[in-house]
Amino acid sequence: MLTVTSVNVNGLRAAARKGFVPWLAETPADVVCLQEVRAEAAQLPDEVRAPAGWHAVHAPAAAKGRAGVSLLTRREPERVRVGFGSAEFDGSGRYVEADLPGVTVASLYLPSGEVGTERQDEKERFLAEFLPYLVDLRKRSAADGREVVVCGDWNIAHREADLKNWKANQKKSGFLPEERAWLTEVLDENGGGYVDVVRALHPDAVGPYSWWSYRGRAFDNDAGWRIDYAMATPGLAARAVKAYVERAASHDERWSDHAPVTVVFER
Question: Locate the Endonuclease/exonuclease/phosphatase domain: which residues (predicted)?
Fold first, then answer.
């Protein structure tokens, strides 16, 4: 089996104080993909910068206190790549990938955006650059006999079933028609050619949500969004046997506003 878990930690130093460390000690995952780390490696406590039993790769953002992605792997990677060849985004702490035997695993933190602001413009530029890279990555990997899984916070809910209050969010970043169309292209066999593994295993489910705002009673009312995905090449997706969200038992037990998303693949 290959078990891959992805979670936006909403600040790794804060998450470490709230429960991330014992969670990491107990996880069965072979690979853990982290987003929104918001710290340079030297700023992290030892138990999260270089946790025992893991090989850690950290890709912080050049802008201090923002973004940042990491990969933790049980096996030492054969190769690591930070960024996807973008002059604008390679230093922004939004993408890191590692080659393991037969599979490339990546951690992605796609910009969140905000309609009518530069943040949305930045998101649109990222989308325009990232899709061609995903296509190229799939093609290169196929030529090498490798599979790919890109995990992370994609900051787009694809379908109405992927967020609780979809009617009220149709004009907000994260559920805009053009963003959803972009994600459709990622999944189109004539486009990106990837498979949303969780949705493939749970085609008729509402959710399962992976993010709940800290405001109000969103978590208690399960008023969430499904924006954390494992997007895999078809060959690997076909080997997925289990996918689930590790939702905390209560609001007080959360160590992030996101929950880990875990996928189990047969080798």
Answer: 6-258
For all residues of the chain together, what is the average pLDDT?
96
Q: Give me the amino acid identity at 142.
A: A
Q: Which of 53, 1, 59, 10 is nearest to 210 (CA)?
A: 10
- SS3 assignment, position 146: coil
Q: Determine contact, residues 4/27, Cβ cutoff 8 Å.
A: no
Q: How many CA atoms lie within 13 A of 260 on its CB side?
A: 24
Instruction: State the total domains in the chain.
Output: 1
Active-site residue numbers? Answer: 153
- 210 close to 203: Cβ distance less than 8 angstroms: no
Peptide bond into 60 cis (omega under 30): no
What is the per-residue pLDDT for 94?
A: 98
Residue 252 per-residue DSSP state:
G
Instruction: Tell me the residue range of the domain where 188 lies.
Output: 2-265
pLDDT the model gives residue 258: 98
Of residues 103, 88, 79, 96, the one with CA closest to residue 4: 103
| Rounded-to-integer distance, Cα 244 and Cα 172, Å | 27
Q: Judging by beta carbons within 10 Å of its beta carbon (0-12, 13-18, 19+), is residue 117 exposed, middle or buried?
A: exposed
CATH code where residue 61 lies: 3.60.10.10
